[in-house]
Design goal:
Elements: H1 2-24, H2 28-41, H3 46-58, H4 62-75, H5 80-92, H6 96-109, H7 114-123, H8 131-141, H9 147-163, H10 167-178, H11 187-200, H12 203-206, E1 217-223, H13 229-236, E2 242-244, H14 250-262, H15 277-292, E3 301-304, H16 313-319, E4 324-329, H17 332-340, H18 355-376, E5 380-384, H19 385-390, H20 392-402, H21 426-429, H22 449-455, H23 457-469
Parallel strand pairs: 1-3, 1-4, 2-3, 4-5
C-alpha cells in the first residue's frame, strides 16, 4: 500500500515537473493538454491549478489565468506566492491599485521578503525613512542574503536615492547591484556575428517579393533593451489590426534548427547566405509554430518585440519576406543609464553588468541596425524614441502607414491598453507617453565617464545625435 502510494506520488511529481518544464520552454499547448487531463482527475488540486494559471498567463489568456488565481486566493487568502503572483500580473495589466493591494497583503504575512518590498516600490515608491527601506538596507548587508535578493535590494535602494536627488549614492547602489551578476559576456562572439552579418547578407537576397497568401505578417520591433520597444509595442498593439506575442524566442529557435541542419556556426552567417527555398519555408513554419502558443487570435500584423532580434534580421527576412522591421533609437547615454539602473529578470542581460559591456552592446546593435537599414530597404524603419515622445501623432501616422494601416485613436493611450506588459518597462509604459525618460543622463554625467569613453567619446555620441535628428519630422 505504502509502496503504491510512493509510486503514485513520484509519478505525480514527475508530471508536475514535466509540465513546469514545458511551460518554461514555451511548449504551452502541450503543457495545457497535460494539465487539463490532470484537472479532470483532480479538479481542485492546487498544484495543478497554479500551473494551469501560469500556463494560461504565458499564453496571454489573461482572463482564464486570473480567474483560476482568484479562486486559489479565495481558498487561501494568505498564500504569499499567490498574492505576489497576483500583484505582478495586475501590474502587467495596468491595474496598479490592485497590484499595490496584493503586494501589501503579502508583506503583512512576510514583511522581510525582499522581492515583495522591491515590487511594492515599483507601484508605490517608498519613503527613505520607511520600515521597508530599513529592511532592504539590512538585507543588502547581511551575509545570508541570496545574491538575487541582494541585487534587487541594492537596485531599489538606488532608485530611492535617485528619487531623492542623491545621484552619487544612487550610482553606488546601482553598480553594487550589478556587481552581483556573475554571468560572463562574450564580446568577441557578438562582434564576430555582426561582422559576419555585414559580410554575408546582400540586399538582393533580402529584398525578395513576398507572396500575398499570408493572412498575418510579423512586425519585429528591435533595439537595445530600454530603448522604447515596449512603449511602441503597447501603442501599436492597441490597434484593432495588430496583436503581439511579446518577447518571443521563436526566431532564435527556428534559426538554431536550420543552422544545425546546414552545419553552421553560432558566430557566423555563412551558412545562411544562400538558403534553399525548402529551408526558408521550414524556417518560416518553425517560427510561426513557435509563436502560435502566444496568439489568442490572428490579426493582419503580429508584433514580435524581442530587442535582441536586431542580430537576427538577415535570417528573418529570408524566412519571412513579408515581415517588417523597426529599430528603436534612444540616446545611448539614456539607454546606458537605464540599463545600469534597472534590475532584469532571468539570464538574458549579462551585458548590463558594467558600463564597458553596455557600451560594447550598444555599438554592436547600432552597427547591425545600420547594416540592415542599407539592405532591407522599405521593409526596415529606424525610429527615434525622442520623436515618439515629442511628436507622437505624426510618428504613429508614419508607422501605421509603414504597416499599411489606418490611424486609430487607441494607439495614443498605451497606459490604458489591456495588453499584458511583462518587461522591466511596465511601470514606465503605464505612465503613458511622457518626457521623463529624455535626458536623465545629464544628472549622472560625472558618473558615466566609463560609458562615454567606451562608446568612443563625445565625437561618436555627437555623430549618433546627428543621425537621430535626421529622423525627426
Amino acid at each position: 500500500m505504502n509502496a503504491r502510494f510512493q509510486k503514485s506520488k513520484a509519478k505525480t511529481g514527475a508530471t508536475i515537473e514535466v509540465c513546469r518544464n514545458l511551460i518554461n520552454e514555451g511548449q504551452l499547448q502541450h503543457a495545457l493538454v497535460l494539465l487539463t487531463q490532470r484537472l479532470k482527475e483532480s479538479p481542485e488540486d492546487k498544484q495543478w491549478l497554479k500551473l494551469t494559471s501560469d500556463c494560461y498567463w504565458e499564453m496571454r489568456r489573461t482572463e482564464q489565468s486570473m480567474m483560476i488565481l482568484q479562486w486559489l486566493l479565495e481558498q487561501d487568502p494568505y498564500d504569499v506566492t499567490l498574492l505576489s503572483r497576483r500583484g505582478s500580473r495586475m501590474l502587467s495589466l495596468g491595474e496598479k491599485s490592485a497590484a499595490k493591494q496584493a503586494f501589501e497583503a503579502a508583506l503583512q504575512v512576510k514583511p522581510d521578503e525582499v522581492a515583495l518590498i522591491c515590487a511594492l516600490h515599483v507601484v508605490a515608491p517608498l519613503s527613505p525613512e520607511s520600515p521597508q527601506v530599513n529592511r532592504l538596507k539590512r538585507a543588502a548587508k547581511a551575509r545570508k542574503t541570496q545574491d538575487k535578493d541582494r541585487e534587487s535590494a541594492l537596485n531599489t535602494l538606488g532608485s530611492i536615492a535617485s528619487r531623492e536627488g542623491d545621484f552619487a549614492q544612487a550610482m553606488e547602489f546601482f553598480q553594487a547591484s550589478k556587481d552581483c551578476i556573475t554571468m560572463g559576456y562574450d564580446s568577441a562572439a557578438l562582434e564576430a556575428l555582426v561582422e559576419s552579418q555585414v559580410e554575408t547578407f546582400k540586399a538582393s537576397s533580402l529584398q525578395v517579393p513576398a507572396s500575398n497568401r499570408q493572412k498575418s505578417r510579423p512586425l519585429f520591433i528591435t533595439g537595445v533593451p530600454r530603448s522604447g520597444t515596449t512603449l511602441l509595442e503597447t501603442m501599436l498593439a492597441s490597434h484593432s489590426a495588430v496583436t503581439t506575442v511579446g518577447e518571443s524566442t521563436a526566431l532564435q529557435v527556428a534559426k538554431a534548427h536550420i543552422r544545425d541542419e546546414c552545419g553552421g556556426s553560432e558566430t557566423n552567417w555563412t551558412w545562411c547566405e544562400n538558403l534553399s527555398e525548402l529551408n526558408r519555408e521550414k524556417a518560416r513554419t518553425l517560427y510561426l509554430k513557435g509563436i502560435s502558443n502566444f496568439l489568442t487570435e490572428l490579426k493582419p500584423w503580429i508584433i514580435d518585440k524581442m530587442p535582441r532580434n536586431i542580430f537576427e534580421l538577415g535570417f528573418a527576412a529570408q524566412a519571412m519576406p513579408e515581415a517588417r522591421f523597426v529599430y528603436m533609437k534612444r540616446h545611448p547615454l539614456d539607454v546606458g543609464l537605464s540599463l545600469l539602473s534597472n534590475n532584469f529578470a532571468g539570464n538574458t542581460n549579462e551585458f548590463t553588468k558594467s558600463q564597458e559591456r553596455i557600451a560594447h552592446y550598444i555599438l554592436q546593435s547600432e552597427k547591425s541596425a545600420d547594416d540592415m537599414k542599407s539592405k532591407l530597404g522599405c521593409s526596415f524603419r529606424m525610429q527615434s524614441y525622442r520623436e515618439i515622445v515629442d511628436n507622437s501623432e505624426m510618428q504613429l501616422r508614419e508607422i501605421l502607414a509603414f504597416l499599411e494601416l489606418p490611424l486609430e485613436e487607441s494607439v495614443f493611450n498605451p497606459e490604458a491598453s489591456p495588453i499584458m506588459v511583462k518587461t522591466a518597462s511596465v511601470a514606465q509604459v503605464r505612465q503613458g507617453v511622457n518626457r521623463k525618460g529624455l535626458g536623465r543622463w545629464h544628472d549622472y554625467e560625472d558618473f558615466l565617464q566609463p560609458l562615454i569613453h567606451a562608446l568612443g567619446g563625445w565625437d561618436w555620441i555627437h555623430a549618433w545625435e546627428e543621425q537621430d535628428r535626421a529622423l525627426w519630422t
